[in-house]
Amino acid sequence: MPINRQIVLDNRPQGEASVQNFRLVTSETPPLQEGQVLVRHHFLSLDPYMRGRMNDSKSYAASQPLGEVMIGGTVGEIVESRHEGYCVGDKVVGMGGWQEYSVVDANQSGVLRKVDTSRVPLSAYLGAVGMPGVTAYYGLVHILEPKAGQTVTVTAAAGAVGSAYAALAKARGCRVVGIAGGYEKCRYATQELGYDACIDYKEHRNEVRSLSQALRDACPDGIDGHFENVGGWIMDAVMLRMNAFSRMALCGLIAGYDGQPVPMANPSLILINRMRIEGFIVSEQMQVWPAALKELGELVAEGKLRPRESIAQGIEAAPEAFIGMLKGRNFGKQLVKLL
Ligand SMILES: NC(=O)c1ccc[n+]([C@@H]2O[C@H](COP(=O)([O-])OP(=O)(O)OC[C@H]3O[C@@H](n4cnc5c(N)ncnc54)[C@H](OP(=O)(O)O)[C@@H]3O)[C@@H](O)[C@H]2O)c1
Q1: DSSP for 179-213?
Q2: pLDDT digit string, tens, across residues 240-256
Q3: What is the residue-averaged pLDDT of the chain?
Q4: Which of 19, 194, 272, 318 is deepest in the core (most CB within 10 A)?
């Protein structure tokens, strides 16, 4: 059986996460039992939620146990099968974790999904046609429920969720405005992702009024629906431009993932604007996944959604790439190429 290189969580972060929280180990993959398959991972997905799992605090999901392989979405190929439903060569998406191979009990429902790579690249099943894409879909379609002609906004606009959000919002006839960090990301957002405008929050240096003014220019009719990924002063600036009866999908608060406080400066705006703010966890909304994946798959297959990917090489590069993604060094979906 092949040697498997794995990244385990070695210790929990005190404040900022660092590469020292992880450890590379090797083990031999065990022989397959009846009903199991061996998957060779081609790509590992690095996602912000993993930062929360590194803590040992109250959350919607259990903590990552120390000394065990880090949790994570993977796409790969069956290289050995003792399950009649899977053949060698089948391409699959699963939760294989930060390692080169995984042994999967294929009888368990939902642990592996076969995917068709004839029109959609394999890696896209971890991004636009995977969990991040469905996240954008759920927040936009089921919480914001925009009508054609309305203005919708999103933070972390050039990332994995943000890029799918732009395509889905444009398909619904919305004006879509992003907020992202840096000139290059904003240019990419408008030129390649379809945003009508994108604001570089770094130009506004923590000044809520200044960012809010830029939003006023980009959203002359105000904001009808906002998809929040960041929190803090950027969300405060957005709140100032929200319309009466607007909606906010609270998807992430990445500005606070290392333990920083993310206060809301002006909650009275919720009342004044009769806003509806709704948090959600995409893995609890499985009923929308089939419709979401169908639409997202079509958008990618037709070339209407071809977001960039940041690809780190080799399992040993995963910790550094993960920390970089939390700091915004990624451009689009952050992946690790394992084959
Ligand atoms: N609720 C759910 O079920 C669910 C599911 C998936 C994802 N999420 C959330 O969705 C958000 C986006 O996830 P993603 O996978 O698409 O990641 P991503 O946007 O590809 O990468 C994270 C981005 O966050 C931005 N960022 C980091 N720290 C920031 C800060 N202090 N201020 C402003 N921006 C900051 C960076 O972009 P810039 O360079 O533009 O700053 C970075 O590239 C995250 O908050 C994540 O936790 C939630």
Answers
A1: EESSHHHHHHHHHTS--SEEEEGGGGTT-HHHHHH
A2: 999 999 999 999 999 99
A3: 97
A4: 318
pLDDT single digits (tens) 34-53: 999 999 999 999 999 999 99
pLDDT tens track for 304-323: 999 999 999 999 999 999 99
Residue 168, in any domain of the structure: yes
Pair 111, 137 in one domain: no
- Ligand 1: which atom is nearest the Cα of residue 47? 15
Sign for the CA dihedral angle at 111, 332, 144, 191 comes to negative
> Does any domain span residue 110?
yes
Residue 115 belongs to domain spanning? 3-126+308-337
- Identify which of 131, 179, 229 to mutate to test ligand 1's pocket (most ligand atoms within 8 A of the CB): 229
Distance, CA 253 to ligand 1 centroid (Å)? 8
Tell me the mean pLDDT in the region 24-40. 97
* Gap from CA of 182 to ligand 1 centroid (Å): 14
Pairing mode, strands 112-114 and 91-94:
antiparallel
Rounded to the nearest angstrom, the distance between the alpha carbon of 48 and the centre of ligand 1 is 6
Separation of 287 CA from ligand 1 center, angstroms? 24
Question: Residue of the nearest CA to atom 6 in ligand 1?
Answer: 132
CATH of the domain at 144: 3.40.50.720
